[in-house]
Amino acid sequence: MTLKTLDSDKVTYYDLNNEINIPVDGQIPLQKDQEALTAFLKENVAENTMKFDSLQARFDYLIDNNYIETGFYNKYEFSFIEELYAYLAAQKFHFGTFMAAYKFYAQYALKTDNNAYYLENYIDRVSMNVLYFADGDTDLAMNLANEMIHQRYQPATPSFLNAGRKRRGELVSCFLIQITDDMNGIGRGINSALQLSRIGGGVGITLSNLRGAGAPIKGIEGAASGVLPVMKLLEDSFSYSNQLGQRQGAGVVYLDVFHPDIVAFLSAKKENADEKIRVKTLSLGVTVPDKFYELIKDNATMYLFDPYSVEREYGVPYSYVDITKEYDNMVANENIIKKTILARELETEISKLQQESGYPYIVNVDTANRANPIDGKIIMSNLCSEIMQVQTPSVINNEQGFDVMGTDISCNLGSTNIVNMMASPDFGRSVDSMVRALTFVTDSSDINVVPTIQKGNSLAHTIGLGAMGLHAYFAKNHMHYGSADSINFTSVYFMMLNYHSLKASNAIAQEKKETFHNFEKSTYATGTYFDKYINEDWGPDSDKVAALFDGIDIPNQEDWAALKADIQATGLYHQNRLAVAPNGSISYINDTTASLHPIINRIEERQEKKIGKIYYPAPYLSNDTIPYYTSAYDMDMRKVIDVYAAAQEHIDQSLSLTLFMRSTIPAGLYEWKNGRTDKMTTRDLNILRNYAYNKGIKSIYYIRTFTDDQEEVGANACESCVI
């Protein structure tokens, strides 16, 4: 049995929504979206929502039928739950668009086991999140209710979807693990990938430590098979471990650009690759030290170093060696096995694959480590390229146990809605509530099937608060994406997010009397992290931007100095606090634009399973805002990089930066195209990657290409962050 009218020919809302795409007298009939929303709520939601005589009866039903957990519920008096519901109802929440309501009920609302009825509306889902994350703290629950019902805060999909449910996946979004250069490490890594894919979320894995094809094994030259067979094993693992068929397991493998298998690694994703080596569903990422950019600039020959001999010489796995610093020593060291390639040839191979598939992701690993305030080394990222945290390696014995247990990473994400946050009555209190909600997730997470993940989480308490709706805010306030004012606004907003997340983390450290592991070795503890904020004014630099922050208390240099003193005295609870995921359907529910990137279309066309196309007008779209909604595909990507760089300045981790290109580039967009072909070439991507590197960008996610036959290359695969 299924919902009675979900796919019925009797409903009108699909047709009404589709009429948005049919101009009337040269105008977009936006009212049709509101008509579709009204029809959907009447014809679908009202028809299919289970009714209860009272709130108590509803909770009794959900508990008796094993739909929700009882642990969090029992931490509250029912009179408080009634008070919470009364507050939420009084806010008179309404979905702003048909897409928002459709996405919520199709993907997030709890349904009966036979899929016949909805068991919750938006207020119910918010209340589950609030009660679950507040963990019995009624004051925090009311604060969170305020943030979520006004859509200033949006937990990532795993948290928002699963909070309170009896039968659920994990609350965390994704995982990062490393494989060491031995059969025990490979076997343990594959098992970890299976386990993590089973419980949900994308898995990032670095293969940089594995010796290259042809390297010796126990003195036998040419014995090693390299990274490609391990990639195939991992791809099959993700395909097998797919949450009982509910989702395709998702993983990304990272390889250092100086690894001897780098060309074969890239070739495995090509459409014409031999089936024995081709990976179809596994994502690829490349970690790129500064030295690569230097060699490209000099048009030099570059050396590729075998991890087996590097580890023997340096006593640590390959990923933990500073390639840029040690490059010349490694070239001169006769004990290190190496081969050569022209740096620009490899650069072109990367761009060719990005044109064809959108891969590989790029992690500027030295850029990330220069900005890293934490003791230790960042060696990789995740499936969406925004998580950057230090790891330590393990030593695994023949019994698959740990002689030395290292640390790996789980990601716990949420987003601020920029438009609504700028209307918050108290920006700092809003951020404090969000940090506390995310803290509950990290404190309650216990991924014991992968002990290195469990250990890393228990030591670091990391979270990733980000943002969505930047382009919507620009358009609403008549700023062109990439303009000087838009860049300055972005900088001020994320400076404030940084300040208040630090303040919240410090408050939690004081309350719990606990700091993250090795806090005393961080630049937070030494105080140098705060120098740039104390020595420079990061406030608005134009009347336009100053007016946008009118009434909002912007931290000044004295505020930063006081915060520095507090943190040096009492520490921080969270090793990492900020990261910007790509998000997607979550942004639709919030009636805003996804992440920080520009929109693709003013009227977005979404292909939905079974029902066909749904159209989504850009938030706040009107004759007044249309000039400020330029498609990403028609925008100079340097503007996007500039905006992301302004945010990156204040974010301790990274941002999922997607670059949008057309196969045929609009005339006048890039000055280096003048007098050359208007087709996108590898040179265009080379120039943009180098521009991003020089702007301090830590990572580049997909390269999305809009082809001349109206297709998109480089679709997003990370459901945990994107949906």
TrEMBL record:
Its EC number is 1.17.4.1. Gene3D superfamilies: 1.10.1650.20, 3.20.70.20. Residues 560-582 form the Ribonucleotide reductase large subunit domain. Keywords: Allosteric enzyme, ATP-binding, Deoxyribonucleotide synthesis, Disulfide bond, Nucleotide-binding, Oxidoreductase. The keyword ATP-binding applies. The keyword Disulfide bond applies. It catalyses: a 2'-deoxyribonucleoside 5'-diphosphate + [thioredoxin]-disulfide + H2O = a ribonucleoside 5'-diphosphate + [thioredoxin]-dithiol. GO terms for molecular function: ribonucleoside-diphosphate reductase activity, thioredoxin disulfide as acceptor. NCBIfam families: NrdE_NrdA, RNR_1b_NrdE. Provides the precursors necessary for DNA synthesis. Catalyzes the biosynthesis of deoxyribonucleotides from the corresponding ribonucleotides. Belongs to the ribonucleoside diphosphate reductase large chain family. This is Ribonucleoside-diphosphate reductase. It comes from Dellaglioa carnosa. The lineage of its organism: Bacteria, Bacillati, Bacillota, Bacilli, Lactobacillales.
